[in-house]
Amino acid sequence: MGISDVIPVPVCIDEEIEKWTIFGQPVTEVWFTTTEKIHQIIQMGPIKNIFNWGRKNSVYFLMQPMGCCGVEMFVFGAAPYDSDRFGCIPRNTPRQTDVMIISGYLTRKYLPVFKNLWENMPEPKWCIAIGECAISGGPFYDSYNIIQNTGDYFPIDVYIPGCPPRPEQFLEGLINLQEKIKQRKDKRDY
Amino acid sequence: MDGIIDTITQFAAQEPAIFALIIGIIGAAVLSGVVNVGAMLVIWADRKVMSDFCNRFGPNRVGGRWGILQLGADAIKLFTKEDVIPAGVDKGVYVWAPIIASAGTMLVAAAIPFGALHIGGKNYPLVVANMDISAFYVEAALSIMSIAVFMAGYSSNNKYSILGAFRGIARMIAYEVPMGVCVISVAVMAHSLNLVEIVESQTLWYAFAQPLGFVIFMIALVTDLGRVPFDQSEAEEEIICGYSTEYSGIRWGLLYFQEYNNFLLGSVLVSLLFLGGWHGPIIPIPLLDMVSPLIWLIMKVIIVIWFIILIRAALFRMRIDQVTDLGWKWMLPLSIVNLGWAVIVGTYFA
Amino acid sequence: MAGEPMAVVNYIPLIIFLIMGAIVPIAALAAIKVIAPNRPSRQKLSIYEGGLKPIRDAKIQYSVQYYLFAIVFVIFDVEVLFLYPWIYVYANEAMQRFMVFGSMNIAVFEMLLFIIVLLVGLIYAIKKEALRWV
Amino acid sequence: MTNASEVLSSLQSAFPGAVTDARVESDDRLWATIDSKKIRDVCKYMTDKLGFDHYAGSAGVDWIARNEMEVVEIMTSYGAHNVVAMLKVKTPRDNPSVPSLVDMYWNANWYERETWEMFGINFEGHPELYPLLLSDPLVGVWPWRKDFKGYPDLTTGERAVQITTPEGYTEYRFPPTPAEIEAGTVVTERPKYPTFREREEAWIKSDSEMIMHLGPQHAMVPGPFLLDVLVEGERVKKAFLDIGYIHKGIEKIMENRTWLQGITYTDRMCYVASLSNNECYCGAVERLLGLEVPLRAQYIRVILEELSRIQSHLIGTGEFLTLIAGVGFAPWQYMIIDREKIISLIESVTGARLTHTFVRFGGVRNDLPEGFDEQCRKVLPYMKSRVEEFIEFFAQDPIYHARMENIGSISPETAKRMGCAGRVLRATGVPYDMRKEDPILVYPELDFKVVTGTRGDSADRIDCTLREILESIHIIEQCLDRIPSGPIKTEAKIPKKVPAGEAYYRVEDPRGEMGMYVISDGGDKPYRVKVRGPFYATFQTLTPLLEGVYIADAVAIAGSMDGCPSESDR
Fold it and tell me: Which residues in chain C have their CB less than 8 angstroms from residue D162's CB?
């Protein structure tokens, strides 16, 4: 039931607690139904908006340049087109990021690495595909080494066309993602 | 006003135990609020002032004047982030690290006088546990964070974190000793280790009385906090995020938050020890005379924070062996020279 | 100046602060157990190292050099420890009667000796490359 | 100063039977076919006697019509003379094999490994013939051969099958393409070789050593590549480099595009310096077509290339600063702001920020807008003052000196032996600059000096970069004064089909010496385009440099080389 995740007690105490029963049902049962109930309350509305306002305004993207759009991603995070204004700063480890930006060519050798990074990210996570190469292989549609349909491997939320798109379009994509998080249209019911 | 003070002092004299308990509980509640909000303001200042140095706007689209609500957004996001504990991690130590970090900083907050109230010509220090060795205690408690850093790094079974943990320990122990010697040389001049008495005895600020000690203490403090010239333990480029690579969500938030807690308390400590605490040229500022010492202290703390953030925007990061060399081969002998200077000046002038 | 030794009662606030310091993170971690979504998967719990499978695990045997650092640190931290009580002793009026070399206080002289001996130790450690990070 | 005909005559006298159908294209281009048994002696003779000490690369060509394969070795020299000798070695097509030159030229290693994995030409005597750019399942299909059945492959994406390993990492298997199955050429016997991971693990000797991935996802260089460091404590004992994470197969794709479409692909090779890539490709094709570029177009090309050199140096140095100083470092942001000024200048002419496709065969696409001249004269002095400020800032910073001086320093001899060019070589003191060695466009008429360093360490590389920006500003000012009016494209009509022939054209790319070897068989598509990437050579010299340094220094050295993995992977 995860007591040892919160209070640093050895894991055996965790199993011990799971054997107890409260009001006749086992503790894990009670615990999961209550969290389920709380999740439904959260889904209803006002609390959900607050959560999404928080998630919307502090989106951290993974520092991962993969092509021409990667170099534009530097500029998007740096001085003139400042993504920090929207609370969006680059982080280096996927554990602390919210959005994964596919910023360039996705090749056969890089696909497993990319999938590992995507899986390592904690749950409320989104994906932006920037540039033609990320959306559909772009000018390399017939290359033997490029993955054309990134959409089948990663649930991409925002597509930013352009080769490479201007940093202003990066910001527009970011605002679209924020709108999407705000209206809870990302179909992953966070 | 005087009646209340007399009753309090009289009550404290009769039952010291209950008085200490009440002060402890009220202090814990107030201080955990004040210190945490202060640390959040320091995080916001770090991002905002940093982007000011870099000629760009900081977070300002989030809401509130100058992007104040950015921290609310960060906090909410971190709270609603999934809690991932990777496999192969030493779970007890992994979970214990943020708890020790925050407990350590709260212990420091207990003994630091956060300013004073000027009532009827006398300054009453705002401190919860007014120990007479509080300088020594605070300097020791500040280094609990290095234990938390090592626990976080070593337990998360990740090559980057292990390197970050070793580097964090090497960095902190290299500057523990010079920091201690600087505190002693301040205490030698003030003839006492109690922070309140140190502040009271600072007619001439110790930053001017012993400039070398002030410089060494600032460098040691910046190292203790892990700010840029000395942030090897989380050097983005070499070892990704150092000791907090495997931490995610609110667990990483706590570690990151305690680092800024230490930053705030460290800068308060510097302004108490070296910049004359709550003494200012015009003690009873005409309008708000009761709170004027507090305002002087807050101004000094803001200046120290601004300076440490400037360091982050302006200096390169040193290599870990240069940090340890600087610590052992330069800081330690110089701080002992400063101790000699404090002893000589202390006997003839103080 | 030195004041009477502090009553033990003054340590109660410290314990309360310690408990408060421990409660805040535990409350935060308990809160996310309820609020945050939870979809563990084997891939998510795998160790992150640049995206690839790490070569052998990270529990390596660290080198002896770190041990040298720890020992030197302990020596000099104990030296600092001896300095703390010395502060109250050296400035005491009672010490004025023991004057050595004209105006120097006997306590100051003894501490000078103590520090010089340790400085020699430090220089020895530096020269023998004990303090060179591996 | 020897020229091509002297070299040819001395070669023919020394090796009577070996040199066949030799051709002296111009004063500094020599084409010759060498008998495969004699190639090693010819190369040794040229290096010792004739001063060809720079092995600039080798290219594989598949002549399917003549049922033979060809390896073209490009031999040049560091300043002794500027003759480029293209020595061709022919082998039959069924099991092609060519003697390897790795023991004579250290930097031949990567070129030969790449030619092997792409064409299947076996190099006898090559110690470690392992794949470089391709992932393991692709080795053995020899993708760059003309009869490679799996191309054009529009189904790479659909065929991936995901496999989750027990530890929770995902891998992908790509079953063969339908074209390969019904053509019956599914490759069954694959060459056996230890994978990259096994080769590394063999190096771990004791328990206190570990191999750390400064992995594909790392904020070191703008593009993924795998730098594994064998680390004990904090010291790097050995470094392993694995590239190919963004290998797009541009050279194969360009064989499937018309000549004009090929220009867009040269932009995406090294996306930070796309104008000099365009220039290199269009220059080679102009040599094939025998076109003469009008003077005004030459001046426009030089101006824009120098502007793109400035912005490439700025982002190279700026990004390097984040490696040794943290992301919030102020000078890094100032460099990006200054770069934006330069990029808006280029954009006012070409319309794009990074991928310009502005150069055309025989001229440029459009003329300079009216206000360009005044805008340039306003921005350039500002840039000059800013760059001088940066140089002074780096010179006076003690931490910078402690972190950068004699870190990753290379002596001129090892630099020449390792075959690197560009700023890395110039930082060691060797004045080897394509604009002086192989002058193209209007560079002979402009006066500028080659910026060289003294110690060849990381501090010198960054110092050379910044001083080169000042040189480029000086060049642009001269061009702005001298630019004549007149046509910007040749009147001659550019034919769709380029006459048969081959050309090798060299350009000073911001990262080093870039060469394009273009072969045309008279069709409307290039028969073969070989790109001799500048950073490909410098990347190879990275691993020996990192032995015995701290991890922080390994990052600083890799950053100070200002790399572009997209151009080394192509």
Answer: none
